[in-house]
Amino acid sequence: MPSVYEKASPYLSTIHLKAGEYFLQHGKISRTIGFIEKGLFRMFYLHDGKEITNCFCKENTITCSYRSLITKQESDFAIQAIEDSTLTVFSYDSLQKLYEKDLFWQQVGRMEAESEYISTECHNRFLNDLSATERYLQLLEEDNDLFQRVPLNHIASYLQVSPETLSRIRKKISRT
After folding, report:
1. What are the backbone dihedrals phi and psi of residue 25, each rounded to the nearest 5 degrees, phi first?
2. What pTM was estimated for this model as a whole?
């Protein structure tokens, strides 16, 4: 009897994206979910013509525009590879078929939705409750390798500060 993973195999495919390429572009409908095997992505939106990064997605995580995927409406977000990346992808329709085939996949979907909700709530608190310096220090403590992998302008955008402000924060921290 095939395992739950073997049952999923026909629905999966692998794609490779080079740094700078998009998994999802603004204004497109998200139709697939990507499991990041290798690489790094940023999810961002446009506000007054400026790119605002709201998420970095690393290896062993899932990426997609959930709102667009579920509602089948155009995405406000873009998902762009920061590094050359490899993803295992499957469509929303395939996910629904897996949900029908095995309770295991329903549980995986529920756990991923819960994880996404918690991440969003934590990110909102991060932005609303911490000063720019506190946000920088928390990112440095919790996800230090991002500073080796992500251009500083994207980190500044994620912290919701200008690159100049980020530079001043970094200079101030390095002196202490």
Report:
1. -105, 155
2. 0.90
